[in-house]
Design brief:
By secondary structure, this protein is mainly α. The chain has one domain. It contains nine helices and no strands. The protein is globular. The protein starts with a helix and ends with a helix.
């Protein structure tokens, strides 16, 4: 399973590196969302600094939808998904590989967005350890849930519009917990953020375990 996961993750990352969709489209889109939030909220009232954690994770969530759609769109042509089903690879390995590829792309995006939030929103830099761990665990949950629902919507003609409708309600707990942990870290009260990280870890573990079991049947039906 782990060997298959490495193979799939490497394939997806090589495709993205060659296409440069993430760097040319997803990252500019996410940064543009941050800029629009800055225009929509008056920075003079300190609203941006107080809401920076929530705005950061909303932006990550929007970008995650694009990354997940891209992850399955590359296999929509030329019978690539049929070839994947007939390859003999472990479905759990395929799930983990695609989730890891999405997670790595999101982590790179979050690094760029963190700089944008610091520059545009004048957010305080406190609780670095809590912020980093929150990003790691929340990203794992987003990638696992997104990969699971991505394959569910992949075989449908309306997958571009159906995926957000399926995914956004499911990852709402990730958004809430990550925002609360981020707010605690930026406020200098890291002790209040650790329980939220624990909740994030539970959610990520549940999504990952369920994905390992359900991905194979969903891939056959897609």
């Amino acid at each position: 399973m782990w060997h298959d996961a490495v193979v799939i993750a490497g394939k997806d990352l090589r495709i993205e590196a060659r296409s440069r969709v993430a760097t040319n489209q997803v990252v500019p889109f996410a940064l543009l969302v941050l800029v629009l939030f800055a225009f929509a909220l008056d920075p003079d009232r300190g609203v941006l600094a107080r809401a920076s954690a929530g705005l950061f994770w909303v932006t990550v969530l929007f970008a995650a939808v694009l990354a997940i759609q891209r992850s399955f769109a590359v296999e929509a042509d030329d019978g690539a998904r049929d070839a994947l089903r007939l390859s003999g690879l472990d479905p759990a390995g395929i799930f983990l590989g695609k989730a890891v590829a999405v997670a790595l792309q999101l982590l790179a995006l979050e690094a760029c967005l963190a700089v944008g939030v610091y520059v545009l929103y004048d957010a305080p830099v406190d609780g670095i350890g809590l912020l980093v761990l929150t990003c790691l665990v929340a990203t794992a949950g987003l990638a696992a849930a997104g990969t699971l629902y991505g394959v569910l919507a992949a075989g449908l003609r309306v997958r571009e519009t159906l995926l957000p409708l399926l995914l956004l309600p499911v990852v709402a707990p990730v958004l809430v917990a990550a925002t609360r942990a981020g707010e605690a870290a930026l406020a200098g009260t890291s002790s209040a953020g650790w329980p939220w990280v624990q909740r994030l870890a539970v959610v990520a573990a549940v999504y990952t375990a369920f994905g390992n079991v359900a991905f194979g049947p969903l891939l056959e039906e897609s």
